[in-house]
Amino acid sequence: MMTLSFESLGKQFINGEWRVGQSSNVLKDINPYNDNVLVEVKIANTSDIDLAYQAAANAKQEWDKVNAYKKRDILEKAVHYIEAHEEEITELIIDELGGTRLKAAFEIGLVKNMIKEAATFPLRMEGKILPSTEDHKENRLYRIPAGVVGVISPFNFPFFLSMKSVAPALGAGNGVVLKPHEDSMITGGTLIGKIFEEAGVPKGLLNVVLTDIKEIGDSFVEHPIPRIISFTGSTKVGSYIGQLAVKNFKKPLLELGGNSAFIIMEDADLDYAVNAAAFSRFTHQGQICMSANRILVQKSIYTEFVEKFSAKVASLKVGDPRDPKTIIGPVINHRQAEGLKAMVEKGIEAGAKPILKGNISGRMVEPTILADVTTEMSASQDELFGPVVCVMPFETEEEAISIANNTKFGLSGAIHTSNVERGVEMSKKIHTGMIHVNDVTINDEPIVAFGGENQSGLGRLNGEWSLDEFTTMKWISVNYGQRNFPY
Question: Does the model's pTM come out above 0.90?
Fold first, then answer.
């Protein structure tokens, strides 16, 4: 079996071939913990983008002819390949993303479940026969693939967040071109190309282009072939891509930023809530769109929570992601680290109290807890994409709901209370696509609708919702008789 390595995967994967990009420019893939250059990649240009989309469109016609059960078998082989190479994939995640072993195991598990669900899609391409207002006529509705899907994925959970669109799109019968983030070119890109190559998808059905926006501009979205553009990333970039897609009559699927509220009522199991809040904020250094940015605590237990939470967070080991005991590794790049530093300082200047203030050295960002944060502070309004969290007091249930809704985002959330139905009723009043009672804010399951409200995105993925998003319904009517015409 071929060894998965940065060197072997550091090329373009276009039309079933591993090749160098046609641009003269090079991207360096950097280990965020030790600055080692993992691989240098000659990047794709607009000609490569065109070749990739042409290949996907051509291969999609071949994929159309493959028996549905054979398609299922191919997708299941992708899972078997991952299982056979799980340790190598773990190493790639640690080195490219600064992810811990815990994070790698979590991400790989999500990926396998997503592919297993997508493998059922070829057997679920169901249509309908509907009656007609006309005599001797029937209306047939066929569920058919959308065509070709362009996927743009982020750097935080790139293996999973790429696969979240790639596997369902393939399972629904589409061709795919994937453009991973430049900081996660392998785990979010060519690793996935290799997995499906080994699984046996037709040559060219899945293509991976490694490039950056400075090189290709808007060509990835504007190209005439893709019918759907699936983007996961920041709200600012997602807004631009969504508008560009619609302008070119393509459907945008957008999974964007979040500002999740983690609400703790006075009747909650406080020790459990402390642990759940820590997991919700600090998993993968807080670089998850669903991470708890704001922890809202009822005033009667506020002081006790802050003490216990501070002690819990202070105990989290920061350092080398290769160390199995490490919980918090590096953030992905210097831009993220500097942005977090500026946000923390701005919050303190506005009156937030730094209960715990971590050092920032290079990409290593130690945990920071900002207490007594108010809704007017930017720290409570902006997405804190790193190991920084706000703690906010509230008096009443109504105030907690008001604070939770005081954001332009609406992705995830959590409510802790011993009264489950009270938690459910509160959840209904909070404007998010997802919210969890007595659980963490970070939840993603393969058959449950996933997506945000407001500026956290458009569309829903997972299960039947992914099947709907990556297919279209075609109406074919059949007249078994003859219509009477008025002239």
Answer: yes
